[in-house]
Amino acid sequence: MSSEPAPHEDYDVVVIGGGPAGENAAQYAIQGSDRTAVLIESELVGGECSYWACMPSKALLRPIEAADAAHALPLTGDVHPDLVKTLQRRDDFTSHLDDSGQVKWAEGEGIHVLRGHARLSGERAVTITDAEGNQRTVRARHAVIVATGTTAVVPDIPGLRAAYPWTSRDATNLHEVPGRIAILGLGVVACEAATWLAALGADVTMIGRSDRPLERVEPFASELVLNGLRDKGVEVVLNASIESVSRPDARETGVGHVHGGPLTITYADRRAEVDEILVAAGRAPGTADLALDCVGVSTDHGYLRVDEHLTVPGHPWLYAVGDVNGKALLTHMGKYQGRIAGAVIAARASGQPLDGDEFRDLADDGIVPQVVFTTPQIAAVGLTSAQAPDARVVDYDLAQVAGASLEAEGYTGQARLVIDGDLIVGATFAGPQVAELVHAATIAIAGRVPLARLWHAVPSYPTVSEVWLRLLETARS
Q1: 447 with 382: CB under 8 angstroms?
Q2: Beta-carbon contacts of residue 166 (< 8 Å; ≥ 6 apart)
Q3: Helix, strand or coil for residue 236?
């Protein structure tokens, strides 16, 4: 259905990349109007998040959280996630890698879908090459939006690429659990993957150059995650690098399958044999084959830099949303940017001024929320204490909140506010199920709500959110 020729080759808006950021941008650019849009996707409409990142990873992690919650109450015996049922649930959330539902949604919104690889071929012109090598060119009356995301980086370590290592796509779409797996990296992808791989029975070793996992979060949060990983049997090797990899029997067996025979890895003056290696060492922007030079656009280490309207400076018809602009590599932030870019395009197309906050990217400047679904969860927004060295730091032990003790026996966690004058500029929560605490902090920071006014936002009792009262009491004392 979606690969048949479009009824016309000119559109008001052309979007390269069919992930959530591109979908949102297309929707907001044409909704409530007679404008037209086309979404060009070379893989699955819905993008990385829907099939290879957010949705499958959280579907794998939720049964583990449920088992941990059961163990934290003296009501049940030993509880473990069932592998077959967990993978079935994961597959249901990824629609079994079938994007027909996403295509139906797009076309229901008036967004045409074309399959193929897209490259710029001139100002407001995009040439698409389909799977058979056929080419067609579409032109945009108002805007071309680049929403091509990022791809996993495989470092140039001797023997690593030849070993066909796993990347995040293999880890989230695993069909078998390696008996022994090494993870290169200590970031979010590495920590979350280690959590579900260990819970599903793998012997996991994490190796990274940093002196702590999740080095961008508050140190107390890193320490809690490190303890949580080690409690699950994960060996975490800090301040170390993998020096070489050898896999004589390397085979491309498909995503999520062990890629051949055992590997030998060397690191920190050690040699070890594992059954698989997962590379979680960062992402690279998907701009290398967009032919940006044909319209005189350069990148910053591959990223498309944009202004507050998500427009590429000097090219008022060209926009970049989501991971590809390097602002915040998070799905919710890409969707936020897509909404802004779409609103800007709609306003410009109808001759309206761009003098409202809805046309400006404000959240990417110090108001970015994120949740890391490890054991325990980490939820943070805004600045850390290291990023605001002159600010006041207020800490509170989450275990002292009545709602936390009801949540789990032996509840361990911590909350921190970073305060500049009378305003919160950062917040971090670490503990079981703290993901639901972070949006209140996001509202406080985005709304620039003074502490005196927050004092009147009374938390319900007995909930973990009572920590807000305790933090504010501590700040006043």
Answers
A1: no
A2: 181, 259, 276, 277, 278, 279
A3: strand
pLDDT of residue 1: 42
Closest residue by Cα to residue 150 from 52, 68, 70: 52
Residue 327 and residue 262: Cα distance in Å, rounded? 38
Query: Which CATH architecture fits 10-46+99-151+284-359?
Result: 3-Layer(bba) Sandwich (3.50)
Residues 6+ apart with CB under 8 A from 429: 377, 378, 379, 380, 398, 413, 414, 415, 416, 437, 438, 441, 467
Q: Which residues pair with 37 in a beta bridge?
A: 13, 111
The structure tokens listed for 180 are 């022994």
Output the pLDDT for position 409: 87
DSSP three-state, residue 59 = helix
Give dist(CA 372, CA 214) in Å, integer.
9
- Quickly name the fold that domain 376-476 has: Enolase-like; domain 1 (3.30.390)
Q: Which pLDDT does position 33 carry in this prediction?
A: 97
Task: Spell out, as residue ranges, where the chain has pLDDT lower than 50.
Answer: 1-3, 5-8
290 vs 126: CA distance, rounded Å: 9
The residues, any chain, with a CB within 8 Å of residue 471's CB and separated by 6 or more, are: 394, 396, 415, 417
Query: So what's the pLDDT on residue 72?
Result: 85
Does this chain's domain 154-281 share its CATH topology with 376-476?
A: no
Element (H or E) spanning 91, and its range? helix 83-93
- Over its C-alpha atoms, the chain yields an Rg (Å, rounded) of 24
* CATH no. of 154-281: 3.50.50.60
Domains of the chain, residue spans: 10-46+99-151+284-359, 154-281, 376-476
Task: Give me the pLDDT at residue 78, please.
Answer: 81
| Distance of alpha carbon 304 from alpha carbon 344, whole angstroms | 18
